[in-house]
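Propose amino acids for all 251 sites.
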């Protein structure tokens, strides 16, 4: 079993994590709950409200969350440029970093890989709802996925995808969008899927992103997403807890 993570102090006492949010409804969810319960100190930056990206990286770990913007919209969202610099510094200093969805795409971009629209059979294809991902051989050996199984359901909400950096590793794949998880160096991870979501978050996204869903009628079945959420979420929350224990190494 490859162990690429850094062991943190017992019970998270005195550990500091930087949490970067891009929009209010896409929060830390189950990951934030885990950090709070394990007494981590969270420096939460609400970038959509004008909070700044810190210039000094005095943290034990970094969590970069999702958002509706794209990594290539730096002129519209200037904080994306600051995040790019921060991630490059985190990679250089080997600060344990976890990116979710947009956060994963930012990690890929900062590592020199392209982020583009997800194209399937020459058409732009969004992944919204519950889908299965499969660990690669490298992913099966990576300690962050220990106990999750070789194949499992995840919640998705994205239209872009990332390439794998030259010095990165592909950890999981899926049918509709090939690249689902990556690792750069020893402890910089990106997940295309939303391991952090709670049930309430999913329902809020359905309401808040209604215009996007309406544009995808006939492609995305919203009622199926609701049904799947009710049937799959309990086990999904359990996987999120296992992943957090694996990544943050708090036992």
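Proposal:
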């Amino acid at each position: 079993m490859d162990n690429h993570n850094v062991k943190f102090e017992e019970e998270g006492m005195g550990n500091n994590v930087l949490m970067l949010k891009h929009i209010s409804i896409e929060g830390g969810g189950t990951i934030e709950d885990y950090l709070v319960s394990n007494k981590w100190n969270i420096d939460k930056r609400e970038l959509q409200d004008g909070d700044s990206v810190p210039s000094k990286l005095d943290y034990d770990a970094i969590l970069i969350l999702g958002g509706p913007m794209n990594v290539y919209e730096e002129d519209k969202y200037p904080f994306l440029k600051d995040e790019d610099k921060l991630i490059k510094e985190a990679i250089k200093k080997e600060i344990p970093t976890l990116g979710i969805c947009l956060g994963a795409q930012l990690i890929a971009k900062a590592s020199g890989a392209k982020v583009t629209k997800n194209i399937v059979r020459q058409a732009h294809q969004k992944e919204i709802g519950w889908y299965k991902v499969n660990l690669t051989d490298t992913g099966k050996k990576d300690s962050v996925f220990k106990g999750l199984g070789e194949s499992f359901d995840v919640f998705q909400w994205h239209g872009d995808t990332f390439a794998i950096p030259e010095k990165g590793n592909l950890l999981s794949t899926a049918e509709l969008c090939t690249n689902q998880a990556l690792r750069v160096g020893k402890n910089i991870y990106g997940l295309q899927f939303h391991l952090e979501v709670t049930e309430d978050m999913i329902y809020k996204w359905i309401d808040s992103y209604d215009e996007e869903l309406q544009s995808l009628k006939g492609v995305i079945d919203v009622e199926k997403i609701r049904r799947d959420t009710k049937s799959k979420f309990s086990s999904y929350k359990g996987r999120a807890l296992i992943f957090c224990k694996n990544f943050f190494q708090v036992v």
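Residues 12-248 form a domain with the Rossmann fold fold (CATH 3.40.50.880). The mean pLDDT is 94.
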